[in-house]
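Structure ticket #2291
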Amino acid sequence: MQGNSVEMVYGYFPDLSGEQRERFSRLEVLYREWNEKINVISRKDMDAFWEHHVLHSLAIAKILRFLPGARVMDVGTGGGFPGIPLAILFPECDFLLVDSIGKKIKVVNGVKEALGLSNVHALQTRVEDVKDKFDFIVSRAVTAFPAFVRLVKGKVFGDSRHALENGILYLKGGDFEKELAPFGNRATVYAISDFFSEPFFETKKVIHLSL
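Resolution: structure written out below.
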């Protein structure tokens, strides 16, 4: 796969529309501009932007394709990951991106407006204060998994219509077997290295938990 560039996304997701390709192609410049004003991505990580942020976010789409009309909440979105890349990939779904830190939501809104992502809504709040319900809740390892489950309990629709049951899709690396023990067979772990060949993904996983 081509080096750290938008070509990585095009290679793994060859069926993108022209609008999707155009939106993805603008992401790095937008984030570099915002990062000059509000530091939401470290300089080292910015140099691996496509691999560490965009492609990592899109690993969720290799596990599950959200159906049109799906409602997805990204908890602890930071500068917009995984929510922004997923919103580009699934324009017919609605995404709520939540973070308690206002400057991060400012970046999300700036990127959203620049790309014309009408399916993205960003909110500075604690997830405990969100009253809506969603088909899926996504996140990039903002806390230990059992604590995260407690935070989002009661925020998922009961009726599932996707290939996976409604619940959590959580991006996490390293050793977390103990964290998953309380959930038994409700939790399924997917190795991102099954989908992406870059060494960065060797220890990265997507956890699905039905709620």
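Closing remark: The domain at 7-210 is CATH 3.40.50.150 (Rossmann fold).
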